[in-house]
Amino acid sequence: MASSRRRRVLSVASECAPFIKTGGLADVVGALPGALDPLGWSSRVLMPAYPAVLEKVGRSRRLWRDPDLFGGPAVVRTATIDGVSVLLLDAPHLFDRPGGPYIVDGHDHADNHVRFAALSWAAARIAIEGLSDRWRPDLVHAHDWQAGLAPSYLKYAGSRVPSIMTIHNIAFQGIFAADQLDRLRLPAWDFTPDALEYHGHGSALKAGLVHASRVTTVSRTYASELATPEFGFGLEGVVASRRDRGELHGILNGIDTAVWNPETDPHIHSYSASSLAGKAAARRALLHEFSLADPVGPLAVVVTRLSHQKGIDMLLAALPRFVESGGAVAVLGSGDHHDERTLGELAARYPASVGVGIGYDEPLSHRMYAGGDLVLVPSRFEPCGLTQMYGLTYGALPLVASTGGLRDTVADGETGFVFDDISAAGLAGALDRALAMWADQPAWKRMQAAGMASRVDWAASAAQYASLFSEVVA
Ligand code: ADP
Ligand code: GLC
Questions:
Q1: Are 337 and 295 in contact (CB under 8 A)?
Q2: Structural domain total, the chain
Q3: Residue 393 CA: which ligand is closest?
Q4: Is 88 exposed, middle or buried (0-12, 13-18, 19+ CB in 10 A)?
Q5: pLDDT of 26-54, one tens digit each?
Q6: Are 400 and 445 found together in one domain?
Q7: Are 220 and 73 found together in one domain?
Q8: How far away, in angstroms, is 134 Cα from ligand 1 center?
Q9: Same domain membership, residue 102 and residue 63
Q10: 256 CB under 6 A from ligand 1?
Q11: 169 lines ligand 2 (CB under 6 A)
């Protein structure tokens, strides 16, 4: 450790497991504090107090208040679940409403830009003023567009507190109309293409990419992809300019092995690489749960948001041949209604070998990694991806597209199957390879053992965050 005093980081995000989760962001934000702690960094996570979160936690101490946070009063309270503590931004006029964190009845909340600007504003004020228990961060760590304005608010206030902007997914950018600048307490003088402006609109993510002390993303491959038009979603120029100054870092996500570990997972009968009976039982139970026949080939699982990113259309095209060749598949997903429907149609066509569960179900996701022989991840792009790492750990061989973090975590032919041609044909080819290897059970078992032995915990990556943090506060 560079200094004997413990340093403090305020991590700012729209979701955090186990409080609320819609995807991998929550897993990462929930796990990083525990991984940073032994490295001399104590964290506090600031997130909105959604109703679903308030239901899970009791009343707690108030550490900060603002009588007018973008149109109403707000307080920050502490809350703890399963040893994870967060700061909840309780601002009923912004967060006490039905629906998920971002969406209600299939549509974004119309004022999402205001809701998350308020989160970012509160983060910057806390960094500048400190909390009433005298806690004040040395550094602000902003995650995705919802926290993207925090570095900007720090800068406009003349604060010297440094900030890190982490891109988990550049496809979501927090775009808002130019006439919202005032409402978001942003200065018109900085509404230029070099700062807040993005093709005549504002962008919270771009603001963070420009104003943060450093930019990180969640794998090395994604860091290099991001600077290209194919993956940068219009922000490739901004990313490239930070990269050219040596200010872009690809730090791979890890998985929280306290939560994701087949030896201790309370959702399954425990098993390990040396004793796989529990996995065989989990497979039988999963087949039963999805009303599937025991296949001669492998049982593949898919746990995913249903969106264009995740390549569900490729799955739909490739799966018929896979199941007709002896495979079976269980899918758990929610999101795009068209994908939900077409997956349902595939299950109706192959009732004994395709099972589809629509919805979000955390315990079931654990049972699926445990029961699966393969985890399929045919993403068009994937900043990091966690499901392939859960697959490795649970002995379900990952079969993944060669992009982003998928590429950085799965070794083709050693710990899983990686396909370069990201198309239905490429996916079908990889499924053929998996079927062929299944026929050679000793080879399959070797690959499974290699996957279960691969290190996907946070240790190495947390050390990279800690050294970057130390560098920017120095
Ligand atoms: P992304 O964040 O892009 O959705 P990741 O692979 O990083 O992708 O993380 C997805 C996380 O969300 C994993 O923890 C996965 O198990 C979980 N998940 C996705 N869809 C579901 C679902 N329908 N039910 C339960 N868990 C899900
Ligand atoms: C995003 C990405 C995913 C990544 C997760 C956590 O949701 O889509 O690839 O694993 O963030 O960083």
A1: no
A2: 2
A3: 1
A4: buried
A5: 999 999 999 999 999 999 999 999 999 99
A6: yes
A7: yes
A8: 36
A9: yes
A10: no
A11: yes
